[in-house]
Amino acid sequence: MKPQAAGEPPLSRHRAFVIQFRAETEVEAGRFAGRVEPVVSGQATHFHSLEELLAFIARVLADVRAESAEGY
């Protein structure tokens, strides 16, 4: 892993996720299944496709941006 470059802002735990993939996941074949959990909220959800995984992450990150803009 590349170390953080000088001047880069630190990574936020509000944008951290735990992703667990099921055994039937085959990246090469485009099959994804598992669960994803935002580290801060702990509200996990299951996904059955890459699109579902990315959509969940996008929703969480949009919420984080909205909260940051409101000053939380």
Walkthrough of the structure:
The protein has 1 helix and 3 strands, in the order E-E-E-H. It has 72 residues and is α+β, with helices and mostly antiparallel strands. The chain has a domain at 34-72. Strand 2 (34-38) and strand 3 (45-47) form a beta hairpin. The chain starts with 16 loop residues before the first strand and ends with a helix.
Short description:
This protein is an alpha+beta fold and 72 residues long.
Key features?
single chain; 72 residues; alpha+beta; 3-stranded antiparallel sheet; 1 helix; 28% helix
Ends distance: 31 Å
SSE succession = EEEH
Shape: globular
Mean pLDDT: 90
Q: How many strand segments? A: 3
Strand content: 15-25%
pLDDT under 50 segments (min length 5)?
A: none
The main pleated sheet reads as: 3 strands, antiparallel
Assembly form of the protein: single chain
Secondary structure: helix percent: 25-40%
- Please identify the structural class as seen in this structure: alpha+beta
Widest sheet: strand ordering: 1-2-3
Rg, alpha carbons: 15 Å
Contiguous helical run count: 1
